[in-house]
Amino acid sequence: MADKSSSNAYWAANIRIILISLVIWFTCSFGFGILLRPMLSGISVGGTDLGFWFAQQGSILVFLVLIFFYAWKMGKIDAEHGVDE
After folding, report:
1. Side-chain half-sphere of 13: how many Cα atoms within 13 Å?
2. pLDDT digits (tens), the chain, 85 positions
3. Which is nearest to 58 in space by CA: 31, 23, 20?
4. SS3 state of residue 45
5. Which intervals hold domain Sodium symporter small subunit (predicted)?
6. How many Å apart are CA 82 and CA 78, to the nearest integer?
7. Distance, CA of 20 to CA of 41 (rounded, Å)
8. pLDDT digit string, tens, across residues 37-57
Protein backbone atom coordinates (compact mmCIF):
# COMPACT_ATOMS: atom_id res chain seq x y z
CA MET A 1 0.00 0.00 0.00
CA ALA A 2 1.75 3.04 -1.24
CA ASP A 3 -0.77 5.83 -0.98
CA LYS A 4 -3.35 7.07 1.49
CA SER A 5 -6.36 6.43 -0.77
CA SER A 6 -5.44 2.75 -1.07
CA SER A 7 -5.06 2.56 2.70
CA ASN A 8 -8.44 4.22 3.22
CA ALA A 9 -10.10 1.84 0.74
CA TYR A 10 -8.59 -1.14 2.56
CA TRP A 11 -9.85 -0.02 5.96
CA ALA A 12 -13.25 0.94 4.56
CA ALA A 13 -13.61 -2.60 3.16
CA ASN A 14 -12.47 -4.05 6.49
CA ILE A 15 -14.93 -1.97 8.53
CA ARG A 16 -17.76 -2.79 6.10
CA ILE A 17 -17.18 -6.55 6.56
CA ILE A 18 -17.03 -6.13 10.34
CA LEU A 19 -20.28 -4.13 10.45
CA ILE A 20 -22.12 -6.60 8.20
CA SER A 21 -20.93 -9.49 10.39
CA LEU A 22 -22.03 -7.74 13.58
CA VAL A 23 -25.47 -6.97 12.16
CA ILE A 24 -25.93 -10.62 11.14
CA TRP A 25 -24.79 -11.86 14.53
CA PHE A 26 -26.98 -9.35 16.39
CA THR A 27 -29.99 -10.33 14.30
CA CYS A 28 -29.48 -14.02 15.00
CA SER A 29 -28.64 -13.77 18.68
CA PHE A 30 -30.73 -10.88 19.98
CA GLY A 31 -33.37 -10.69 17.25
CA PHE A 32 -34.22 -14.37 16.75
CA GLY A 33 -33.25 -15.50 20.25
CA ILE A 34 -35.03 -12.79 22.25
CA LEU A 35 -37.18 -10.33 20.31
CA LEU A 36 -38.72 -12.70 17.75
CA ARG A 37 -38.78 -15.77 19.97
CA PRO A 38 -42.57 -15.75 20.48
CA MET A 39 -43.09 -15.71 16.70
CA LEU A 40 -40.66 -18.61 16.23
CA SER A 41 -42.10 -20.78 19.01
CA GLY A 42 -44.29 -22.81 16.64
CA ILE A 43 -41.35 -24.02 14.55
CA SER A 44 -39.69 -27.12 15.97
CA VAL A 45 -35.95 -27.79 15.61
CA GLY A 46 -34.38 -30.76 17.36
CA GLY A 47 -37.27 -31.16 19.79
CA THR A 48 -37.38 -27.51 20.85
CA ASP A 49 -38.72 -24.30 19.36
CA LEU A 50 -36.65 -22.30 16.89
CA GLY A 51 -36.37 -19.21 19.11
CA PHE A 52 -34.89 -21.24 21.97
CA TRP A 53 -32.54 -22.98 19.52
CA PHE A 54 -31.23 -19.62 18.26
CA ALA A 55 -30.75 -18.41 21.83
CA GLN A 56 -28.87 -21.53 22.93
CA GLN A 57 -27.01 -22.86 19.88
CA GLY A 58 -27.92 -20.98 16.73
CA SER A 59 -26.18 -17.73 17.57
CA ILE A 60 -22.99 -19.62 18.48
CA LEU A 61 -23.03 -21.51 15.18
CA VAL A 62 -23.70 -18.31 13.25
CA PHE A 63 -20.77 -16.70 15.08
CA LEU A 64 -18.46 -19.56 14.06
CA VAL A 65 -19.57 -19.31 10.43
CA LEU A 66 -18.97 -15.55 10.55
CA ILE A 67 -15.42 -16.09 11.83
CA PHE A 68 -14.57 -18.28 8.84
CA PHE A 69 -16.37 -15.93 6.45
CA TYR A 70 -14.42 -12.96 7.82
CA ALA A 71 -11.09 -14.78 7.47
CA TRP A 72 -11.91 -15.82 3.89
CA LYS A 73 -13.19 -12.40 2.85
CA MET A 74 -10.27 -10.55 4.45
CA GLY A 75 -7.87 -12.86 2.62
CA LYS A 76 -9.45 -11.73 -0.64
CA ILE A 77 -9.39 -8.06 0.40
CA ASP A 78 -5.73 -8.36 1.48
CA ALA A 79 -4.85 -9.80 -1.92
CA GLU A 80 -6.74 -7.00 -3.70
CA HIS A 81 -4.85 -4.33 -1.79
CA GLY A 82 -1.45 -6.00 -1.91
CA VAL A 83 -1.06 -6.70 1.80
CA ASP A 84 -1.38 -10.49 1.66
CA GLU A 85 1.33 -12.76 2.99
Report:
1. 16
2. 457 787 889 999 999 999 999 999 999 888 888 888 888 888 888 888 888 888 888 889 999 999 999 999 999 999 998 887 7
3. 31
4. strand
5. 8-84
6. 6
7. 27
8. 888 888 888 888 888 888 888
